[in-house]
Every structure is written in C-alpha cells, then in structure tokens.
C-alpha cells in the first residue's frame, strides 16, 4: 500500500485518471484567457492533459479543451505545451 496522497485528475484527451504530477493543468480565467497553470494554483476553470505529445494534439484537435472551456485555446498554448514536455 502506498500511503502517499496521490491526487488523480482526468486527461481531457484520453479520459484516463492520472496522478496530477503527470498532467499539465490548463486554466481558463474569468476573462476567458486560456493558459498553462505551472503553479497549479491559478484561479479559474481547470482542465488537465497528459504530458504527452499525443494527448496534447488530441486535446486541441478533438476539441478536448474547447469542450472543457467553451472557448478555443490559442495556438501558442499548444506550442508551449509541446515545448514543456521536453524541458
Ligand atoms: Zn491523456
């Protein structure tokens, strides 16, 4: 048994529940801005996506984020997330 607290969140692309630390948190704030929440504490509506190329592409292509936020996330965000994987 693992008694360390694992917080699970669902990826908007593959719909799998994963450890929060394996996911990116993306937030839409009250002004409708969609951005990467690197602190995990930003206010607004959050959605999660795996730190994987395939899930990020799916989240943008198959409207994963659009469904979660009701707004289209900026192309810049896609490029940023893809870059962040390789950091
Ligand atoms: Zn995923």
Looking at this protein, list some descriptive labels:
87 residues, alpha+beta, Hypothetical Cytosolic Protein, Chain: A, three-stranded antiparallel beta sheet, two-stranded antiparallel sheet, 3 helices, 5 strands, 30% helix, binds zinc ion
Structural notes for this entry:
- By secondary structure, this protein is an alpha+beta fold.
- It has a single domain (8-81), classed as Hypothetical Cytosolic Protein, Chain: A, CATH 3.30.1230.
- Helices cover 30% and strands 24% of the residues.
- It has helices at 53-61, 64-69, 75-85, and strands at residues 8-10, 17-19, 23-28, 34-36, 45-50.
- The strands form 2 sheets. It has a 3-stranded antiparallel β-sheet. Strands 1-2 form a two-stranded antiparallel ribbon.
- Helix 1 packs antiparallel against helix 3.
- It is globular and about 40 Å long.
- The termini are far apart.
- The mean pLDDT is 94.
- The protein binds zinc ion (ZN).
What is the name of the CATH class? Alpha Beta
H/E element string?
Answer: EEEEEHHH
CATH architecture: 2-Layer Sandwich
Mean pLDDT over all positions: 94
Number of domains: 1
The span between the termini is 31 Å
The radius of gyration over CA amounts to: 13 Å
Strand order of the largest sheet: 4-3-5
Biggest beta-sheet profile: 3 strands, antiparallel
Beta-strand proportion: 15-25%
CATH topology: Hypothetical Cytosolic Protein, Chain: A
Number of strands: 5
**Alpha-beta content class:** alpha+beta
Tally of helical runs: 3
Present as ligands are: zinc ion
């Amino acid at each position: 048994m693992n008694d360390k607290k694992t917080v699970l969140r669902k990826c908007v692309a593959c719909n799998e529940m994963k450890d929060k630390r394996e996911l990116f948190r993306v937030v839409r704030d009250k002004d409708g801005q969609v951005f990467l929440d690197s602190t995990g504490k930003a206010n607004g509506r959050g959605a999660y996506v795996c730190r994987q190329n395939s899930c990020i592409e799916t989240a943008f292509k198959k409207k994963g984020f659009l469904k979660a936020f009701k707004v289209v996330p900026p192309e810049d965000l896609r490029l940023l997330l893809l870059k962040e994987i390789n950091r």
